Amino acid sequence: MPTYRETIIIGAGPAGLQMGHYMNKAKRDYVILEASNKPGHFFTHEPRHGLLISINKRFNPFPEFEYNMRHDWNSLLSDDRSLLFTKYTTDLFPKAEDIVRYLNDFAIKLEIKVRYNTRVVNISKEDRPGAAKGLFYLKANDGREYSCKVLIMATGALSEKLPDLPGIELADTYATHDINPEKYEGKLVLIIGRGNSAFEVANHLAPHAALIHIFGGRAIKHAWNTHFVGDLRAINNTILDMYQLKSLHAYLGIEALKLSKAEKNDQILVHFRDLVLHWKTPGYYTDSKVYDHVIVCTGWNYVDTSLFADNCKPATKKEGKYPLLKTNWESDNVENLFFMGTSMQANDRKAASGFIHGFRYNVRTMHRMMEERYQNVPYPVKLLERDVSSIADLIIERTSVEAGIYQLNTFMGDIIIVPEDPNER
To answer: For the purposes of burial, counting CB atoms within 10 Å of the CB of 361, is it exposed (0-12), middle (13-18) or buried (19 or more)?
Structure first.
């Protein structure tokens, strides 16, 4: 018989552990299935150069704990003040190994129910004799089977999203390229991409490569302009600085068309085009250039539909990059299937849902919604006296101190309901 849990969470990364904490507090029947032997395994190999771009700001001029959480980008939410990431390193941009150590302590100290070394290889939704209708059935790599009413995918970035580029097999990728800098000494390097992963790679190769070109295809979005934490961050813009100071390395708004082998077997011929607007008749300029290395850094996929049987395959968007979600992070077409963690940015590309300091509040909200839906526990509210001063004081307090609506501005907010009955609070 399958092992049954009311809720199964796949993935023991930050989001999975955060939900596990809330499930523990509510004394719910759940388990987290984790493919590796430790929580936060993704951070043991990503980012490739071991440095996070999530800010670890430890000190602020105000005493309120909730205010300080506005600027602590890595801590998960709990009642244990010793489980704050700010106690794990003094680095403003922490090392990935620090978050692994922190997540391990969080899981152990809060007794999160995780079953490690359990990789889910197939998910179906069936009606079986003697079992409740519409359960999910999960098969693991060790042959064991699990079933649940509610399934939550907290699997984070799953695979690289590579462009449909002829000859791409000749290139390395962000996840597979050799990070030994000696390999690139005096070489010509092309990086395809325009996000933080592309510029992260360029940063680390800048002291070693003879020439680095980044092909981005269009203008860069800078986080300092967009205020979106996923756009290019200042910590990664060394190449732009060198480009502006005429130091050979350059970002070029050029589109790669195809890759082929150059006359020298160990080199790659890159065919490209560039839109030239200042020509008398604007048009594309096409050419080719030889590079010693090509590294493709074009982002991640956050859903793997191959895991799911046809009867519960979640709909996707952005060419399969993200799951298509309702406003409560439930799959748009599969009932009781939810996504959380970095995949929550499927609904939010303006605030911080793709980072811990954003999705920890999304996870808390999701848990409250699930408690109301599945356990008949009302969503928590705060009752006020029916007067302008009470309402105004609360608005001022929340906007001045609260962390969730601060980090998820434009995406999450408070609702104030004033009853029509003047005698009701």
So the answer is: buried
